[in-house]
């Protein structure tokens, strides 16, 4: 099934999330609300930097009106706090007339974006997403692996933009800001399993919070944390 090109364009065009407020220092801070992200954000408060972020996402069987969509992504520096931009890799999902469709796509810095057509993704598949972007001169790197059918793809790219490595994200993103005709699809529960984030140096103090998606004044998601997993549930 051919993926909706409008959804791909919306993902590439979507603005980064403004950094949410922090109300207290803890591993799980209070939940805040944002218009387009639902999930967990971890922020480094010292001199450490995130060099990689990963998770295995269990692809849900989405439902909803034709044209509804979203993306489940992992990333670094997605909160618009870094001049060098962000590094994100995600699974785009779209409710087409023929049924649900899925595709992996990435965006890096302000000048690199693309998608993978050689990794087939279906509901129920465990998809491992890995992004690696050391803040030194090492090139950025993304890799997507379908652990069910053993298909995988990766992309390495050089960029003049260097990341700050201060935030790590495991979130579902709504694309309705970029395309008002594409509300968030009903994804049931999106499971980000085995969430990991690290770097070459001591990371130092971390502050994690959860955010929920709001559309037209309505909260659409609920986030819970279980051991090393983040669960985002559509309400």
TrEMBL record:
It comes from the Eukaryota. The keyword Transport does not apply. Keywords: Signal. GO terms for molecular function: glutamic-type endopeptidase activity. InterPro entries: ConA-like_dom_sf (IPR013320), Peptidase_G1 (IPR000250), Peptidase_G1_sf (IPR038656). It holds the Pfam family Peptidase_A4. The active site is at 173 (proton acceptor). Transmembrane segments: none annotated. PANTHER family: ASPERGILLOPEPSIN, PUTAITVE (AFU_ORTHOLOGUE AFUA_7G01200), PUTATIVE (AFU_ORTHOLOGUE AFUA_3G02970)-RELATED. This is Peptidase G1. It comes from Boletus edulis BED1.
């Amino acid at each position: 099934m051919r993926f909706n090109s409008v959804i791909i364009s919306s993902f590439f065009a979507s603005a980064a999330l403004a950094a949410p407020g922090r109300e207290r220092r803890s591993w799980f801070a209070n939940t805040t609300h944002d218009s387009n992200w639902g999930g967990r954000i971890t922020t480094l408060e010292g001199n450490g930097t995130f060099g990689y972020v990963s998770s295995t996402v269990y692809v849900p069987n989405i439902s909803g009106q034709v044209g509804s969509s979203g993306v489940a992504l992992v990333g670094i520096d997605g909160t618009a706090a870094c001049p060098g931009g962000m590094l994100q890799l995600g699974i785009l999902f779209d409710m087409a007339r023929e049924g649900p469709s899925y595709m992996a796509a990435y965006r890096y810095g302000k000048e690199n974006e693309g998608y993978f057509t050689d990794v087939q993704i279906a509901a129920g598949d465990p998809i491992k997403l890995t992004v690696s972007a050391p803040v030194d001169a090492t090139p950025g790197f993304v890799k997507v692996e379908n652990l069910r059918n053993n298909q995988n793809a990766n992309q390495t790219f050089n960029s003049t933009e260097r990341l700050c490595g201060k935030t790590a994200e495991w979130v579902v993103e709504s694309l309705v800001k970029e395309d008002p005709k594409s509300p968030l699809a009903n994804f049931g529960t999106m499971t980000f399993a085995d969430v990991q984030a690290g770097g070459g140096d001591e990371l130092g103090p971390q502050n994690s919070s959860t955010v929920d998606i709001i559309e037209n004044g309505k909260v659409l998601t609920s986030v819970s944390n279980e051991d090393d997993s983040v669960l985002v549930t559509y309400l």
